[in-house]
Amino acid sequence: MHPRINLLPWRDTLKQERETRFGIITGISLLLIGLVILTIHLYFQGEINYQQYRNNYLQKQIKIAEDQIDEIKTLDEKKQRLIERMSVIQELEENRPQIVHLFDELVKQVPNGVYFTNMTQKNDKITLEGVAQSDARVSSLMGKIEESKWLDNPKIYSIEAEGETKSNFKLEVTQAVPRAKSE
Q: What is the pLDDT of residue 32?
């Protein structure tokens, strides 16, 4: 028998096997790390996209809510205008018979020898201008106005004598409502 001698460089072969194994392990490790990084990236990108979708949805809902708020404000303004109109109409309805009472009361309170030439009303203040046969008749008119339940607070502004038998006068009275006067 012959002795067997291995002449192949076994150390080089072993070294090459180790390098090949190291390269394979390194490649697989890099591939796994790349897959983990890609998975993490895709996960966070999905989370970002989902959050962006939610943000867009919330922006749309905020826009809808703002439009509804604007519509509510517009409706509130319309409602306020309608309430104001209704109150004006109601006030006119309540005051409608007062003008009849005012003229009726003026006719009742005017003494003989006094007549009116001008009458103006601003709110509840009535300015009366007229002619009287004497100053005493103007005083009588003012006294009767004080006794009236529809007229109140007579204030004389001027009395001008026009000859011996005539006086021009100007006075202001307040239109009153009887129930307000009794309170």
A: 97
d(CA 111, CA 6): 157
Handedness of CA 183, 145, 120, 96 (dihedral sign): positive
Q: Which of 6-10, 43-47, 76-80, 172-176 has the lowest mean pLDDT?
A: 6-10
For 128, residues 6+ apart whose C-beta sits below 8 A from its C-beta are 116, 118, 119, 170, 171, 172, 173
How far is the C-alpha of 130 from the C-alpha of 137, rounded, in Å?
Answer: 11
Query: What tokens were used for 147?
Result: 């006794």
Give me the pLDDT at residue 139, please.
84
Residue 178, token pair as written in the block: 């009887």
